[in-house]
């Protein structure tokens, strides 16, 4: 088994930004390959549930509306988003019933957000038929405004905020100190490349929080579950870092055979960044509209033991479902197919290191609360 | 040129209910074949604009929220829905600015609704990039609840409410007096068939109004533009009636050749009903939550003159974009293709009668207002 630690969603529609997960319900679909994202999200569930229960003042949230409004930012195509939203509704209902046992339960409206190229058709067709909420889809980047002022009560975003709004500046510029020659990510790259990624991510998170500060009612909650990296650790030490380095070296080998140019590899960079908790806290604390209620790091693959190993074929299938769209935008289909085929072979050769690296705390959760003032 | 008077949308996902317009942006798409729906909607525009301006009390609508919420029920895939929503926003903005010249303009949120099988992906990708509203898609039947209590200010529904939620009772039952043998619609059918259609339509409109009564704030507005028929007129006299009769006779001819069975034709009925204004008024007045502010009938093809004629090839293309999905659900692809090919020939033979019938008032609009009490 494997924790893929790939995104539940990819969010901007920029020319050089990420592209969404595979749509539909077929064998290559994200819908059928998001089991590990589900497990990853569940690891932190108890802590998050407790924070919501403790902090959400249902009475004050309902002071100006009879409806509780939730949003999943970066929902992809399901089914994980349905479980996550229902879970939050259950928590709110329980709290409400214990506080106001004789009052009727409020109505819920859930907004499913992802970029406009996400497969909303699949999402809408797979909505739970007996859901206890009014459902709506919201297309657009969550790094900008998506909702009216003070209209949301709980915002949830799982495995989405590590996707940058665009490829950081300078990576594809030969004259920049951040030129990322022969790499597709900042793993094992020069310090300037790492800094370009970190800066872009911090700017994006800041944009995210500024937009949410306007949209979330005072007392409202943001839950973030994200790919992470322990403070002070290098990305090349993580399983995904090893994988990105493998991908780059396979692409360079293909370039040596003349099937693509080295420039094509240089011009391809994955817009994803795993923030160390200290960096997340720094950006969040700079934003005066939110307080960090609780946070934590975890290992998303607690089941990996000496007896349970990664199935590399399955692992690469999951990676493909989430990421192949980004490769197809830059490389011909046969190049991408070969890259993923070779990836399975290369990763199998380093499976011991990969499994060991998956025991790191590469997932973090943060629960923020919108201040009542400001 | 031709007014197709086919639906802007088809709304229920029942086994025997209608299926949506063609999605995507290709040559067969509804997106590229909805020009006539646009013209049809524009005919009544001035009257509707005036009613909204006169009746909408923007101040009272904003008493509990800083956001004006609009919904287009049966929006299909665009682009007409974008024009219609922007037009209503412009009216509200003008009224607001004249009433409160120094106040900031409120925010707008627009909900685009259609059945879950509608092509929301195309709708979302074609949203105006510089829109002045927050957009959301809402999948589901508008004959049931779609939105929280008192959350909407203006509801718009154009060329959608003539689609029934399901095929009326008895049409496909040999032992029923409403058995619709050899027909695919109530045009030229026995009185019992017409009555079954009328009853289903009245029940559906009643469900629609009951759901909206809960969702629309007191003082809020519903705009309905719908296929209609002058009181007392028979559907077989209308151009669409002639067309449905042609379709049935082509299908029966194909059955005679043994390619389909006569039972297959008997079991196929188009779930669409054109309400005479008196019937619409009767249902609306029965609902105590709404008042009819204004209404009117019009001829959606005022440009049809002695010099301007219907291009039957173009006409049939428009009909196909809106309706072929329904036929494909019941008949093999080659049967449907042949039916539409023959349709063009048959309609060309009666083009004089068709054009003359298109000068009837087969479009109606209704503006209803949600009462402040009840």
TrEMBL record, chains A, B:
* Keywords of this entry: Magnesium, Metal-binding, Methyltransferase, Transferase
The source's superkingdom equals Eukaryota
Biological processes annotated in GO = methylation
| Record GO terms (molecular function) | metal ion binding; methyltransferase activity
The protein's matches in Pfam families, at most eight in alphabetical order, are given as:
Methyltransf_7 (PF03492)
The UniProt entry, under InterPro entries, shows: MeTrfase_7, MeTrfase_capping, SAM-dependent_MTases_sf
- Gene3D superfamilies in the cross-refs: Methyltransferase, alpha-helical capping domain, Vaccinia Virus protein VP39
Q: Is Methyltransferase included in the keywords of this UniProt record?
A: yes
Protein name stated in the entry: S-adenosylmethionine-dependent methyltransferase
